[in-house]
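Quarterly update, task 2.4: NAP-bound model.
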Amino acid sequence: MIHEVFSTLTARSGADHNLPKVITIVGGNGRMGKFFNNQLTAAGHRVNIVGSNWQGADSLLPQADLVLISVPIESTCEIIERTAQYLTPHTALADITSIKIEPVRAMLEHHSGAVMGLHPMFGPSVESFAQQKVVVCSGRNDAAFDWLLNLMRNQQAELIFSTPEEHDQMMVMIQATRHFCRLTQAVYLAQEKIDIDKSLSMSSPVYRQEIDILKRLLNQNPQLCIDIMLATEERCQAIKSLADTYNRLARLIEKKDREELIKEIESTQNFFSKQ
Ligand SMILES: NC(=O)c1ccc[n+]([C@@H]2O[C@H](COP(=O)([O-])OP(=O)(O)OC[C@H]3O[C@@H](n4cnc5c(N)ncnc54)[C@H](OP(=O)(O)O)[C@@H]3O)[C@@H](O)[C@H]2O)c1
């Protein structure tokens, strides 16, 4: 009750930016959840966790100043809807899902308080927000998140403000098709039983970097890679179109068609030179 009155007053005055916040992370035992827990706790805030058994949800969700959703992409919207049932308008609700249109829409639909979509453009192995990019999508009442954005800024994070639509469109290329290329390359190396250590012993630095990236991808939970590729129909179509491009070029290679291959390179050079 006291907390509620205090939250209402401070939310109205907007004057509590420096006070420790009470935060509940839904999915806080997961990899990104742990990262946010560490950062928020180190900054002096009090962090509670709701896991997949939802133990403590009735008390930990309604009392929070901020609820942060950090759960698998596929179940995010359903979990947002479930979470919102526990919240009053005084709680700010944010998510860190790698897609933004559907989660932001779900938060706005099911929660009447402050809403913001975030996408950290890094994995859980980093030590802080320093030099990392975070995409920020406004939902409602951005001011309620000033303290959180300032925490990231103070650690030298770069915040990129975008709409959910622009974010998702960019991530088709930045994440979905890239994951497919890397996965294909990794599957191919395994299928061909390549001696990776031997190949590294005579490789260029770029090849070594590529292998490191493939290893990082393979060390992640496979679910995340798959969710990133399958998250939207647009992503599935883009991956299909990329595979068609592979096939078109592979046919030119098969036919040893130098002329057409050079034309492909020249038209692509032309495109890149205009960027
Ligand atoms: N990993 C990355 O590199 C990365 C980068 C940027 C953004 N993201 C985004 O961050 C989010 C989390 O990714 P992650 O890699 O941290 O995943 P993760 O390690 O699999 O963690 C997900 C957490 O969600 C919890 N969870 C699953 N179902 C739940 C439910 N029904 N109710 C409540 N909690 C539930 C799990 O709880 P239990 O532990 O109790 O099972 C788990 O701890 C995703 O949306 C992803 O797109 C990830």
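Highlight for this quarter: The two ends are 57 Å apart (CA to CA).
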